[in-house]
Amino acid sequence: MNVTDTKPRTGLISLGQLRSAVEEDQIRAVTPVVPDMHGFLKGKRVTADLFLNQLDQDEDTVGETCAYLLATDRRMTVSPAIKHGLMSWSRGFEDMSLKPDLDTIRLMPHTPGVALVHCDAVDTGGKLLDIAPRQMLRTQLSLLEAEGYEIRIGWESEFLLHHGQRPVTRHNADYALNLPPGLSDFFRSLEEALLNAETPPEAFKGESAPGQLEVTFPYGEAMRACDNYTVYRQTLQHIAEQRGMRVNFMAAPTDETGSGLHLHLSLWRDNEPVFATGRGDDLPQPMVYAIGGLLAGLPDLAPLWAPVPNSYKRFRSHSFAPQYMNWGYDHRGCAVRITGHGRGRHLELRVPGADANPYLVATAATASLVRGLGGKTLPPRACTGDAYHDYGCPRIHRDLVEGLRAFMSSDFSVAALGTGVLHHYGVATQHEIDVHRTRVTDVERERGDSRA
Hints:
Number of strands: 21
Strand content: 15-25%
Low-confidence stretches: none
Number of domains: 2
Largest sheet: 11 strands, mixed
């Protein structure tokens, strides 16, 4: 532990800088957080002295939280069928411990005097919980490393922004430069806050639906990229609420709108980009196997990247969201798109929606890459026409019921995740289906209204 570092700065700081800032009364509290099943940060604010004392006494964990944080839906409701280790009604949802990742201590611009640190969930025996999103990703990264590769990723995040009930843009503002003054000010504030949180964005732009915006992030190590995304989402919500705005991360927020969370990925070996070799359409073999693995593996892991019924309403014809598990060269209608040039050539995974958990998306993608590389899985032919008429390729699941059926019956899902993790996420997915089955929608009311 480095205790010789001097003054803290914005963004990421070392443990030594945290200690110095606490001694100088610059930091008074720490928020240890754990990403939940949906990728939202959960935790509690503790005094900085308590955090450091616990760290000094145990050298490993910093307090406890109720284990149900890894068992709830988005409304913090627990399914009666949940039963995994600490997380069950029969055991009363015991506490789990938090193991801080000391490389993630961060000063957030909107919480002055408070440091945030990402943590891993640990059971009563000191074992990392296998159902925790960070641990799920870590497991797959280790398997990929065993194949001799590292994955680097970057996110492309779409969302809707409203001021009250009014979208911040009234029409298609994709690539528009004449954005409303209030929106330009919002982007400036968000950019400054993200830079101060050391979560630098790469680009901002309007998108194709009223109120739809996009923020993209540069490439980086997978776990750090996912941690950064959770900081971005929390910061975005704060900046919006400051201005009386509302952020919507639904995959299909309206009948005509779809918002994605596109994953840009490439494989590296010995600090060199593997996908950069080859010329033109002569793809390097690892890239061929990577595409084959993604197309073969992702359908069986659908609840990890399309977790709720609304997720599947985004996959509409000619919507720029894919309908088939296909791939193509710079083809935005496909599930997997080859894009970039030279050393920057990479794959864009276009199936995840804005509602997805980044750790679980990266978990599903990495597991599929491991499958493709290990099994030398060959993809189908590249799509060269209308991707929405590519009937020779499997169709993306039409709803969450289909996705869950594939998830629970797949040998690949069991092998990749283990039976415990598979069952836990399967039960959570069934809970989402059951909740929606009991709700009467506006469409039902509209179509059920008797009109002679």
